[in-house]
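Please review the protein record below. Tell me whether the encoded fold seems credible here:
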Amino acid sequence: MSKTVAKKGFNITSKIQSIIYKIYEKRLWNQIKNGPFPRHIGIIPDGNRRWARRLGFDPKNGHYYGYERLKEVLKWIWDLKIKYVTIYAMSSENCLYRPEDEREHLFEIIRKGLRELMEMREIYERKVRVRVFGRLDLVPPDIVELARMVEEKTKNNDEYHLNIALCYGGRQEILNAVKNIVKDIADGKLKTNEINEEIFSKYLYTYDCPDPDLIIRTSGEVRISNFLLWQSAYSELYFCEAYWPEFRKIDFWRAIRSYQKRERRFGR
């Protein structure tokens, strides 16, 4: 078979696949378009390195492709008018135990992302407020400064909320909340008998957000890996086989469809 014939065959196959994808996408949209949609989505964007290895790339480069996919996924979320999203950008374990060169590569992507957020037209057109939280003592000082600049620049935006969990751990967040509660009791700002779930939640990083309705994790891993442990008590969990850089709109919409089919009883 000549190269020309093979190329034509490949192009025809690609066009057929594209047509089938569009038909399925439209069918899926018709299934979910009338809602309900979650108010708050948490995302664990897993599988960047494995995706890169599978394709023969340097594993570190998978994080770059994952970042580019994240920008696209955020637009899909906002297109559905979902007001809150929390992204698990880096865990505290990533910051403590990953090899130094990989950590630095991740931090460089974080720098790039924060700089882009400050200038991204979409952030201001959609009125997105950005917050960065986690163990920022593990983060290079210039990134902490960039995070504070983004927060300051977007603090008056009130339509959507983008939380970036950076060097974050759910257990550490709960411990920090307990320490701050103990301090406020010692300072006379709070009484022990006043403490309940609502009060406790106000000491968490997500104090001004509803708990996530849906948490999506990619790459086929079936666990939440220390992500929003308190807040996810009644979250619906959706685990997707796709690695994060290959996560498609139909994968996202399937997660929404799954969420819509579930009966949320909140333990009742």
User: Anything to note?
Assistant: The chain has a mean pLDDT of 94. The CA atoms of residues 83 and 160 lie 4 Å apart. The chain is about 50% helix and 10% strand. Strands lie at 40-44, 84-88, 128-133, 160-165, 214-217, 236-239.
